[in-house]
Amino acid sequence: MSGEVAIAKAVGGLAARGGARLLARGALAALGPVGWVAIGALTLYDAYAVYNAIAGSDDDADKKPECETGDCDKPAEKIDKKPPFKGEPNSTVQGPDNSRTYGSDGYPLTDRDAGHQNESGIGAGDHVHDWGRPANGDPPTNADRGISRLPQPGDPPVPWRNTPSS
């Protein structure tokens, strides 16, 4: 009986310091196997909450480092992972994972992609896709995006996340 009293005092002390959940687990443990199942469920719930808190803190992962934007005094701005489908005619947008050059109509002309981990061959490394145009003059769709090829001079720049550090 003295061991149970010591545990109760220890658990009670933790509860006084904000360990109410631990106190509830002590009471659940006294229920035997049913209590242990409940404790397991609470532990999984707590682990889920911790995971979500950690995953939510990854909001800055897609921000370009502020010194690379040319102004170290301003905070980094969040950017999209992919360049927009339609852009400024005859321009190029460099993103973290993709870079895109637009034609005179503002639609994609050439995409440069970082390697895809789930692919083999050309798609596994730095590669390029050329965009065609439908014969009827409609805007291009994903069906008009060509197969992967190796980069050549004149293609869009390497996505900035894959640019070697100097």
UniProtKB/TrEMBL annotation:
Chain residue ranges for the region called Disordered: 57-166
Biased composition (Basic and acidic residues): 61-85
Biased composition (Polar residues): 89-102
Protein name (record): Uncharacterized protein
The species this protein was found in: Neorhizobium alkalisoli
Species classification: Bacteria, Pseudomonadati, Pseudomonadota, Alphaproteobacteria, Hyphomicrobiales
